[in-house]
Fold:
Amino acid sequence: MRVLTGLFLTLTLAASAMAQDRTPAQRQTLKDLAYALGQSHALRQLCVGAADPYWRERMGQVLQTETPDEAFERSLRESFNTGYAAAQAQFSACDTRSQSEAVQVARQGASLAEAAAKP
Structure:
C-alpha cells in the first residue's frame, strides 16, 4: 500500500505541476482526482486518527500549484469534500474492508493523476 500511496502522491503533484489552461475533460479529471483525495483523506483518518492532515495537505498543494480561478477552486474543494463524505458514510472503522478500499482508491487516484499529468 505504501508504494501505491507514494505513486498516487507523486502523480498527483506531477498532474498539478503541469496545469495551465485546462480543457473541460482535463478539469473533470482534476475534479475526479480531488474526489479520490477526499476519499483517501477519510479512509486514512479511520486508521491514523481524525487529526491526520496527510491527504488534505496534498489537496492544498494541488490547489496551490493549479492556481485555479475561484469557480474551479470551489468545484475542486466540493469534489474533495464529497469524496470525503462518501467514504466517511460508507466506512466507520479501520478494518480490512476500509483498508482494501484505501488501496483501490489509491490505484484509481494514481490513474487519474497520471491522466491529468499528460499534456
The chain has a mean pLDDT of 87. The CA atoms of residues 57 and 89 lie 22 Å apart. The chain has five helices and no strands.
